[in-house]
Amino acid sequence: MKKINSLNEIENEEFAITIGNFDGVHIGHRSILGDIQSKCKKKNQKFVLITFRPHPLRILCPKENFLLNTYSEKEKLISSLNVDYFLEIPFDRDLSTLAPSDFLDKYILINKDIHSIYMGHDFAFGANKEGNFSFVKKYCKDVHVEKLREFTPDEENVSSSIIRKLIDKGDILRANNLLGRNFFLMGTIVKGAGRGKQIGFPTANISYSSDRITPKTGVYITTVEIREMTYFSITNIGVNPTFSEENQKTVETHIFDFDDDIYGEDLKVSFLQRIRDEKKFNSVNELVDQIRLDVEFTKAYFKERSC
Questions:
Q1: Domains of the chain
Q2: Which is the catalytic residue, given 130, 146, 156, 252?
């Protein structure tokens, strides 16, 4: 996959495009992109995926802890889907108020080799979302414009917003089913308070993008990837109420059978299942007893699935 800054960088190649945010690159995205790829292959066309950076809602309705992936993570996920070209259009308020015809003229119809535009069943762009399928089909008279089917496996809707709500609720199992992979957070390992090590369960604390959505506070079965190796782990998301009255949320992972010094390194934490809520214990001993139970439960989980 080649990253480009303009469709004019594609020379002497007939191509098709699709446009969307593709946050999470979930099973619905993958199914639709696969359909487009098949159509392009039959017609010997290149496939261009166009998206926006930042996500439009980061400009129009700013808030943190929102994205299912960072932009670089999204690009990496898309690169595995046989897309030929990847174009990120910078999004700002001026772009949001641009007339659909102006958007098409400025960004899409600038290359005469464009053959097809594939639009999501509910995708629209431009001022007041007027750039819908009907408008594009009428305006782009010399281009094939096609509306894609809605992806509803088992009659269940799939969307990035639905997945965000599941993650907010801690329903990682359903979120992972709709993502078609395990939800993950990536970040740099930073020094914490060191309490985990003091009580016999050292943890890796990660600092990650505030744009990323974080699962509901609680204890999770996880795996981690570091130094090109994967390890079983257990992760707590929360505010450490037994030790602190602050509300600073942290992500702390206890990695099984691992004791290397990894401060400053990058860590990928994949979430498999939620075990329980975070709880304030009456004593450190109570907390340690519960952690032991959580670790035993997690190890049994992995043992059962490795048989």
A1: 2-155 (3.40.50.620), 182-306 (2.40.30.30)
A2: 252
